[in-house]
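hi got a favour to ask and not much time before my train. below you get a single protein, a line of residues and a line of whole numbers that encode the local backbone shape. could you go over both lines and see whether the tokens make sense for that sequence. a few lines back from you is plenty, here it is:
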Amino acid sequence: MDLDNNLTRRGFLVSAGTVLASLTVPLVSGPAAAFADEVVPAEEDVPASETAASKIVVVHTNDVHCSMVNEKTSLGYAALLDYVTQQRAAHGEANVVLVDAGDNLQGSSSAMLTEGEMPARVIGACGYDVITLGNHEFDYGAEKLFQLRQTEGSVPLVCCNFVDERTDERIFDAYRVCDYEVSGSTVRVGYVGAVTPSTLSSSKPTAFADKDGNQICGFCGDESGTGLYSAVQAAVDAARDDGADYVVLLGHLGRKGVMERWSSKAVVANTSGIDLVVDGHSHEMYIEKFKNKNGIDVVVSQTGCQFSSFGRIEIDPFAGTATVALDSSGLPAAAELIKQWDGKDEKMEGLIAELEAGVAEQKNKIYGESKHKLCAFEVDGSYAVRKRETNLGDFVADSIYYSAANMGEDCDIAFINGGGLRHDLAAGKITYGNLIDVCPFANTVVSLKVTGRHILNMLEVAAASYPEASGAFLQVSEGFSYTIREDVASSVVYSTDGTKFESISGERRVRDVKLHGEALLEDKEYTICGPDFVVQLGGSCIPKPENWSSARMLFVDTQALINYFSESLKGVVGDEYADALGQGRIRITDHDEAADGGSGSSSGEEPAGGGMAGGGKTTAGNAAASGSTATKATPAYRSVPATGDASLDALSGALASAALIGAAAFGFVDEER
């Protein structure tokens, strides 16, 4: 795809915009995606309700990431649709709106095997009223996304801060205004969309550039945050000018573990006119209220991820000046997170079953077993792999390390970022689908040479957010170790727009970096392997190496898991990965261990297995995994053979090709990756 020739305002809208909008079925008539200055007339938005409803009910989701059903909550699209049907029966068909705050096309084995077609069909059948962009909506590349326009139906997609920087024009409609009949009066609600500017730094640099490498798209990001605030405020003001009585912001922005100036809280604090925010991106569950620039409370809600819950907020035009009534504690009385719903829409269940059956054979091929649970999450459901070493991080980094070695690559260190690991690997039988679920993004693994100094800078950025979880956190292969001093503040300096690493301005928090027990040398050259997003292209602000263009493409990360598990481990994940805390490759301490003779001294000793070594404090592990940690046996190097299954070998090749094509086309990835 030649972005330089095709990414015009109208040209992009006709192609990508229509495709994105086609992922859902409309409840209203009218154009699928109007320009910000071509707002759909009110009479074409939503027909007047025939009922005498007294409220407007907003049902919302975010960061579903292709989860058809959450095993823990039993929530999913079938439950959501049944709930919406119940709400419409109670409040009027036209007065219950279903919205989504982004990231719904990527994140599961079924989605990956169908390159987004399965979730696109399911989302389409749900009948969302308005959606906004998440930063995973282009993960399969532009060409595949364009094919998804064959999905039936369309729905408005709004995003006020995705711009063509050559013209400063919005690529999608910034907002949409819909009419509702409430107690005999017409009430107008505007829906504004915004996606985090971090999308730019966490995407591959080629994603928003022309054929000469010049950036032509952006997300209104800058060091002060005013670019994003101004874009949102302009859209809110335009919606108000268009007659909106209330404004709902659909923001893929996040609250914790994100760039603070681009968080939902910061956007609310620096704008006015927003009545409530449906948030996403940071995978949190909360309902709170933040003060806007005029000191007025704004309700902000987020439902977690993968159907941890779905949300419901009432807009009551006759409840006084507050959009959402507050209870005696000051929290929204008419807002809730639905964490349990027993009803299921039978038609949706049937559609999902039909689509899952189409990929069942590939997903259910058994490759072996794991004696222990490999953990991506803490017991509270938060991502462990984004803030500490885990046995899953060890396993995936080792799979890259050994798969590269088996290809003849002289790999010294393999990395995998915590944001690339999305699912636990349960104890018991391991299928192809299980392995894909661990790394669902089909990232291309590359190999290249860098200096020890560059590796130190990579680790410093990866640890900059600790103790907050960060997708940039680096899990590492066997033989490599480092220590994070949590009592030392991060001194990483970023570019003025916050999208790139610049330098280290003071004391480093990452210490005692060793390879096979020997201190890493700053001027020595080492060969590293990992997802191109992390080690080559500067994703998540990880430093981009000077010789990035010399990287060698090796394989897709999922194929590395299959190769390592099937060949090196002979189909059994054993006791070497028993401990949820990992094998002691990453230590976290709150003091100078060298000063008191702890394991942080430059003794040259290989870190022992069994979790964190020495006197440093460590975060708690996931109690779901148990058992003692044994010293890891080194699997023999061998050539990487085919799996023996012709269909799976062909599929793996297709996935690898798709990943490489996507990298050269137009892919979104977030800082979680």
